[in-house]
């Protein structure tokens, strides 16, 4: 082992030296550390730090890399060699007069962000994207383009006829296709200039190639003796088949396999075998042969799937119409994007590639670019690959320019984002990126997991991977890891195969949830300092477990990361019903839900009194009937009266202030924040109001169709104040993280298959959805896609297990009735992949009859107490802006408050989404001018406000403190609401921002002021920030600071 590690040290040294490389490295090998060290080494070779670009695929990964490099440059490291490099960098920077804070100017970003920068700095093409907004949910624009095309295109009727005139289904399919158009749009040129006969010839050629490929694969896997035995058997049964070709292998497959793909156990006349002595001998030969073929049924089963390639005639005549329709929809989409000055993420990459085809990166950015690094390269899709190739188009032949990519094909788990693991393997094999030569390097040492985990993986997981790569199907050979550390703490891998005496799925899942909760208690009690994670394939797989813990194991601190749908939250339901009611007085369902909610708290009999005889009136008319309050009891009348008065006081503001301010103001005046079950639900309110802003195209209305779609796609986190809660997250979310202990429950659960697409594409050939019972090319393409996904499931399981440092528990539960069946696990589950390795120690558990099923757990109904509705209410002219803790008069005369609110929002957007400051200012200044004009500020006031906003944005770019404050740090939260107990009273606190840098907690408030004595002003806010400090009093060291937005100054108060 030591010799292997020493060899790898040479590889690591080479990876940080001159040349272009593609580095393959397993989980726990320190990939990001190598990339960081290479980046730092390259700083010694460049004249400007901006000559280096490092790319990742997520904002989180980009920020982590940026933090690593910034931390390395600012702080002493344990690595002596690295310290020497950093010392040289500082001398190099001083010699070349680099900015004192050059580390804040480093180009470390997502690939989408670089593409956006290319577009905005080089509007070579008309409508390429200068000053455009990025729409993260453009389904409405897709739908508009689709409707226009279906209604006006001459070819749409033929496609509608093909899908049996199901336009609703067709619309949904076309939306999903448009989201992925960067994957197929350029391939449509393959069909340009070809007539139907030429296209047919291409399909026949494709079928022949697929058949030849499977035949070649079978011959490679079978020995010559076995092939001879098969040939003798087939000559006895089908003497007319003489040539060993596709038809030969297909006939043999049909002979020995059932429809399900398993080997037959019996043969008779139906299979061409007689009942005489010759037939008997033939059966013996077949039985002997099948023993030799015991693990080859899968490849034989593929033959029937490949045979579907020959059936494409039913959709072939429609291909020209389909292609014309797709081109027409795309053109209409581009027109809409131009009209609306927006685009989606697919268009960012497409447009950026078009720009780079006409220029090069250095000219566009007006800076020399000499080095490009890409992290997690296994997650690249083909559109991104083209973009990366264009980025490096002038690198070949220039020894000063290098490309470096690092990744692990065994951790490629983002196929749902069209990531293609074959890209990594092809570049590795061909040693080329476009025209640029790249040398392949490989590491094998895992420094994260202990010896028990690595040995278990090498012994058991390896069987889920093929012996050799099958790049076309995304099937990657297993690379065994080497143990990198001698420490042997922890239990390693522990399978838990739970057998439950029940055939009811709810009972099985709930019983498993209790088992896992007890296991978590045991692990937590044994090692309180352990970082523990519960990982699953799907959010829904955690429903029973989280509910069980909240109900019966409240001592377990949990933090569920974007697991729960926002729709399942009571606070969301309350404010959502309030919103629907405020914007539609005819929506009786919303009004009844609001009146029944904890905010108002009317009872069912009172709702009946209000609505039973007033079906012809809208709700507002009903509630304003003077006789209505007389029919209710005193307390109910007070509750209803308060609602009516508050709405009357504020309804005129609808359309005059932003929708989110309007809604939150009324919600707070109704004491919605006091009606919450948990104060942590304030982040749910913030999330919802953000969705409202995204769905408000103007001040007059909310697009509720868009809002409901956004709600469907929004998941929230359960936040626990415990310093070390158990983390609950999906496996994809855990990528790049590590934990002392990992629990993987529900391994016998499966995920829902993707809906059928209108068409699939393989090697540029399109197959349209099969509307018949007879399998065709579409079914073959779908089979290949399922195989790619199945191969990814193996990698997903590998990723989950390799998050563990000391121990990993694999939990599988099933009915006792299924344990003796040939396939006891659900097909497609993790358990089905690992069953031979995890079924050795079965644990039989009887379900606890005292427990109610998790879906019967309903919290008690709550409502605000009567004292909240006491006192006289009068109409007034104020609306409360809870987010910024100020009262704003309807006339909005307080200009500085408005400027401060806008600058708060700008900073929040820049930090959360890591937006380009230049792009934000270009896109937003016109809007801000309209904003102040709309609220009737004078021309001079508006000019002053715009000037102050420009100054503040400029300070963010040019001052040391401004550049620092726009970075994203660990545990970075903006305007998060907290509740603390102060002398028995619950107090809510909302710091503008809090984060961790270098193990120090920062609490920062943003202030706007014309005063220049910033230290004095900062001191006046000390008591406020000291109050915020109480939130984190058990946390690490804390720094308090005020950032003066329009001065670009950070003043600390420690």
Structural class based on helices, strands and sheet pairing: alpha/beta
What distance separates the N and C termini?
50 Å
- Uncertain regions spanning at least 5 consecutive residues: 853-859, 875-893
User: Regarding quaternary structure, how should these chains be classified?
Assistant: single chain
Report strand %. 5-15%
How much helical structure, as a percent, in the residues?
A: 40-55%
Instruction: Tell me, briefly, the overall form.
Output: globular
Q: Provide the spatial order of strands within the biggest beta sheet.
A: 15-18-14-19-22-13-23
Largest sheet: 7 strands, parallel
Number of helices: 39
Q: What is the mean predicted local confidence, pLDDT?
A: 85
Radius of gyration: 32 Å
Counting DSSP E segments of at least 2 residues, the number of strands comes to: 32
